[in-house]
Amino acid sequence: MNKKLSTTALGLIMALGVTAAEAKTLVFCSEGSPEGFNPSLYTAGTTFDASSRQVFNKLVEFTTGTTNIEPGLAESWEVSDDGLEYTFHLRQGVKWQTTEGFTPSREFNADDVVFSFARQWDKEHPYHGVSGGSYEYFNGMSMPDLIKDIVKVDDYTVKFVLNRPEAPMIANLAMDFASILSAEYADKMMEAGSPEKVDLEPVGTGPFQVVAYQKDAVIRFKAHPDYWRGKADIDNLIFAITPDASVRYQKLKAGECHVMPYPNPADLEAMGSDPDINLLQQEGLNVGYLAYNSQMAPFDNPKVRKALNMAINKEAIIDGVFQGAGKVAKNPIPPTIWSYNENTEDDAYDPEAAKAMLAEAGVTNLKTSVWAMPVQRPYNPNARRMAELIQADWAKIGVEAEIVSFEWGEYLERSKDVNRDGAVLLGWTGDNGDPDNFLAVLLGCDAVGGANRAQWCYQPFEDLIQEAKTVSDHDKRAEIYQEAQVVFKEQAPWATIAHSVVFKPVRKEVKNFKIDPFGGHVFYGVDIEE
Amino acid sequence: MFRFLVTRLAYLIPTFFGITILAFAFIRLLPGDPVTLLAGERGVTPERHALLMIQFGFDKPAWQQYFYYIADVLQGDLGKSVVTKQPVLQEFFTLFPATLELSFCAIVFAVVIGLPAGVVAAVKRGTWFDHTLMGVALTGYSMPIFWWALILIILFSTPPLSWTPVSGRIDILYYFDHPTGFMLIDSLLSGEKGAFTSALRHLILPTIALGTIPLAIIARQTRSAMLEVLSEDYVRTARAKGLPPWRIVGLHALRNALIPVITVIGLSVGVLLAGAILTETIFAWPGIGKWMVDSISRRDYPSVQGGLLLIAGIVMIVNLTVDLFYGLINPRIRHRR
ipTM of this predicted complex? Predict the structure, then answer.
């Protein structure tokens, strides 16, 4: 960092009451303001970065930089043989943060766990409606149907009773919405008549605590001195909210921030050759696909779908649309997820063979449409361009495709329709790193007319993913999912197009920053070397 | 003068209602609704969608929603944001001082440079100065703000020059309270060494980026107004009387040429607020421009309605003030009644 930072740092150090002379400050140029500071109420990545990923802990957590689960506030857990009861043994001696508005009188215990989930689950809970409570992830992960009861066994034991076995349950509890909030703070704020403060001025057990927030400008955190994993290496963490990607890059170059998310693809080359910047990269936890309507002729014939897949030149798409920041996808799940099947074979690009296969299936003069999303998403930076490339590829085998597009909300609605015509470009970013989160959510029979844009309900595949839900043995589950991927490939309800590659430029003095597969930014464990 | 004021104020009432209807209808005409957009790819079940729409009150017929809305507005309640669940009025006034501070600096910048430049161009009509100035003004007027802003940043904020900071309102490491919301004032009040200078330095590039278009308009308008006035009889009379040229130009001509210029300055408040959307996004300036864009793309009905209403209100008040100013500047308007 330059001189300007170190001289003005002094003012900050005094303001924050940090005594150490060489307080370390890390500045993150974040892309936008959080919606609030309670991760269960909101869905945006900016909210999670500002709350669950710095301020709170969960019962179980993802090891930073991976989709593997490790113990968090729960030291250990057991699952009953029928898969219906999850018993968590909680960590002792975990201290809550002391903030301007709250001084904790006790350590973390089972009451906090029960409060955090009961608020979302129990419609009669006094906190359920606070801050316009709508718990989109809790609902989206089917928690209301899944949970039968949440029981406090003793101060350090909590039991979740389920209505049906659900193997991804543990992974669900590592998600942002499952953050543990302080029941004592909530009670105090309720008494004071300002319950919504719980969601605006957060108190957690995590590595950083919020000091101040100015909308669209800055969020200030300081290290939680009594963090149970040990105090963070950096003393102050600052989010400088900077919405424009080119400007974020200029700030990084000028030394006004240390880490920036979402660079412009056009800037990557310059970043890579800048000696002050480390350009980190990792495949994203996402997939971009083209979903046929498998209930509509001639797309109800797997051969036709397969032929169309073979006509698409995916390498050209990676070059033209992703500008290299992508990888060809062959499976419906990304390689960062466990159970990814290395051995499935992708449909090779071969227009001649594709043409012959179409003729064999008795399809001539096929006219259809390709749907292009109107927005930029991580799994598809330019759907219009992608659709044009596919249109041109298909024209070579005599298939005439028209490109259609709608406003984003309309697009999402209309593409769900079982009677919809044409193939839809869309994608998915994983929530919990569990294969079920892709395979069941996007390709299961229940999701037809919803998130299953291929309207694909194929019994052999469905049996596999349903079986995998009930098995708690990890290796056995992985085996089932690998088989499911083979079935998927044979039937080809989608053309799997690409997984994006995530780039994270950080300044060279930043140490140990790891790319989070879930798209978040975790600053515990990160250090700055002067 | 009093009757003039009352008539002008009376005009504001139908305008206000017109704006509420426009603001209300405009955001609802866009396809998509806040619930669907918040859910994204993940989707939301039809039952839950219906439930949330009821919670937000968007299930009622539009006319009924409008009347509830007007009733609330008249009581000073602009509703709560669908996304952040915070009161719209509070969000607006947290962010507004930043926009006001930037717009004020931009307009001062535009007037201080544009006005004299226009006068000189008119006096030296047809010279190389005039041609150059009008050429530059046309370029400034046609330049896209986002491009101009980025060029400024790349030139002045990154190595090798590094004269100005890239973005933000003040060096990130200054941390003090913001009682007024105006960074220049708050930084002085804070008593922190160097804070005011830092705030000032952060204002330079955004002010130039936002002020360039109004500057060009003002320079061109001043020039043409001056040319017109300089050919008037009273100017010839003044010349014939042997008054020194600076008195003719500076007092007699400029004063009368100011009327159209002031109109343009008043109207450019609207231009500034529109330009603020881009300028604020690029310079990470926490004002209302960026906030409005986000609200529109999320179909945050209450924020868009409230924001439009407040911005329209401000533009109306500024233009009313400009109308009143005419009288002060030009006795021919003051005495005509």
Answer: 0.80
